Amino acid sequence: MRDKILFLSTAFLFFLYSLPLALTSEQLAEKIEANYRSFEDISMEFIQLIESPVFSDTQKVWGKMYLKNPDRFKIQTEGEVITTNGETLWVFSEKNKQVRKSLIDQSKRIFKPNQYLYNFRENYLPELSKEQKIENTWFYVLTLSPRKNQEKEEEKDQLFVNDLTLWVDKKSFLVRKLKYQDLNDNLVSFIFSKIKTNSKIKDSEFIFNTPKGIEIVDLTE
């Protein structure tokens, strides 16, 4: 009888130690950042949903997004392109027949996706709020809130994104959905699909070549 109890106790302990350890919020955040930093580049399609106090209905936009480590990105929708080579930012509007050119470091009020995938822990405190199953896929739901650092109060006030939520695929550690509220009180969601990594995207993809007949507003001078 004693041997049987000992065997059951040993088996139970083995079972406990064989269970996967739950990730802490900080560990999950580190893993997501490390995952994205390991890719040379990423491309994906997205649906963007925008709820704004300016209009009553939710706006729905389809587009493509390209990211290249560490600071290049391109967001392309019908009639609009936002792209940067890491130094210069171009914002093109087909409707206005205009492209605004500025320095990326001086462009505060714009969504920069790299900041919220590659290096979000610098300005935001991560918290694993729950795990959620959507259409047979399990996700970590990670919320990000501005860090309360007295030395960075001025920088915190300048953050374009106040609160952010990431839906992270538990298997791939890729963000499949991103939702945030900006300084203009817009509630914006990106739903990502057809994610491809390490596709050897050229640096020239992130430089905007101005078509003929388009006005250039140069704010770099």
Helix segment tally: 3
Shape assignment:
globular
CATH superfamily: Lipoprotein localisation LolA/LolB/LppX
The CATH class is Mainly Beta
Based on the coordinates given, report the CATH architecture.
Answer: Clam
Q: What's the short story on this structure?
A:
The termini are far apart. It contains 3 helices and 12 strands, in the order H-H-E-E-E-E-E-E-E-E-H-E-E-E-E.
Structure characteristics:
single chain; about 220 residues; alpha+beta; outer membrane lipoprotein receptor (LolB), chain A; 12-stranded mixed beta sheet; 3 helices; about 15% helix; about 45% strand
Question: Which secondary structure elements does this structure contain, and how are they paired or packed?
Answer:
Layout: H1 2-18, H2 25-37, E1 41-51, E2 59-68, E3 72-77, E4 80-84, E5 88-93, E6 98-103, E7 124-134, E8 137-146, H3 153-157, E9 161-169, E10 175-182, E11 187-197, E12 215-218
Parallel strand pairs: 6-12
Antiparallel strand pairs: 1-2, 1-11, 2-3, 3-4, 4-5, 5-6, 7-8, 8-9, 9-10, 10-11
Characterize the structure shown.
With 221 residues, the chain is an alpha+beta fold. The chain has one domain (22-218): outer membrane lipoprotein receptor (LolB), chain A. Helices cover 16% and strands 44% of the residues. It has 3 helices and 12 strands; from the N terminus they run H-H-E-E-E-E-E-E-E-E-H-E-E-E-E. It has helices at residues 2-18, 25-37, 153-157, and strands spanning 41-51, 59-68, 72-77, 80-84, 88-93, 98-103, 124-134, 137-146, 161-169, 175-182, 187-197, 215-218. A 12-stranded mixed sheet has the order 7-8-9-10-11-1-2-3-4-5-6-12, with helices on one face. The chain is globular, with a radius of gyration of 22 Å. It starts with a helix and ends with a strand. Residues 11-20 have low confidence and may be disordered.
